[in-house]
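User: Hi! I'm working on a homework problem where we have to compare a predicted structure to a textbook description. Could you give me the structure for the chain below?
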Amino acid sequence: MKTNFHLSQKPSAQQGFSRVGIVIGLVALILVAWGLFSRQRASARLEEDTQAQIALPVEVVRPKASGGEVALVLPGSVQANYQAPIYARTAGYLKRWLVDIGTPVKAGQVLAEIEAPDLDEQLHASEAQLANAEANLKIAQVTAERWRDLRSTDSVSQQEADERSATAAASLAATNAARANLQRLRELSGFKNIVAPFDGVITARNTDRGALINSGSSSGAELFRIADTRSLRLYVRVPQTYAASMSDGLQAEVFFPDRPGKSYTAKLDSTSSAIDASSRTLLAQLLVDNANNELLPGSYAEVHFKLGVASAASMLRVPANALLFSGDGLRVATVAGDKVVMKKVTLGRDFGTEIEIASGLTTQDQVIVAPPDSITGNTQVRITQSEDTRQAQQAPQKDAKS
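Assistant: Happy to help. Predicted structure tokens:
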């Protein structure tokens, strides 16, 4: 009985060793698998960290619709409806001036008188020349008539009669020339009185009594300047973006620095119908009523246009620091996936911290804020914060405060 007991214990020990081997093998497999998994995960993390370090971190925002009525504010320059410099047509000395700056005048009113002794002498000499020419003409005509009578009796030759007739014709031409020269000098003598060409106000006087006066605009100085200020012309340069909105009859509200708290109404009269290639603007001319003579020509004006909702429908706004200036024009850097896409844009109004974009962007674009100047298309980036993320972060704070 004792021997049988030892024989039955031996197989049980062998089975125990087998189980221990299996457990050890399983543990070894698990350790190997865990090691492989850990290595793969570490490699993936290393690759992610490497890509994160290579990608440029950026902050993005989405363009906002401008919306509402467009209030376009532009600088303007005021000019008189009519204005003209006045020069002398006769040389001499200024005898006296009758009006000064700010004086209202009527068309034909005498502004100044010129003393022209040289012209007076020429006029007297021309009168004498005309009298001499008329006397010569009279004797030449009488002589020609006598020689025609003598020719009818063959007392003189035909040649002599023709010579007397030609002399009479030459005397007539000389008389007409002397009469025309006298008329010219009389006209010039009439210009000794400088008169206003139209109703207006004297805005400049550049001469004084006794001053030497030269005739013409090339050699002479401007004596007076006259302006019709009952209606003023207001000139505004409108950006090309809003050129299509400048329709006939469009009204604008105008403000002047010297008239604080008061506004005036201006009406669009015409445009240049062409874009200035240097400034990309359209020159618009507006008319302002100035029957009370409150406004002064040459003034600076602030012109406010209201262009309506339709004009603002396609306008978007982005931060001012999102713009990139390059040789190809204005561009905005956007993010598509993890790459940069450069988009050419057209500007609208400048709001200081924000810029209006007339074309080139949509509300779905992710615009990079403050991009580096060296950024280019297809640059790999990673978004650190977006407008949606910022709003989501601010929402719990607002709820907590409320």
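For your comparison, note the following. The first strand starts at residue 56 and ends at 61. The helical segments are 2-54, 117-152, 158-190, 309-312, 387-401. Good luck with the assignment!
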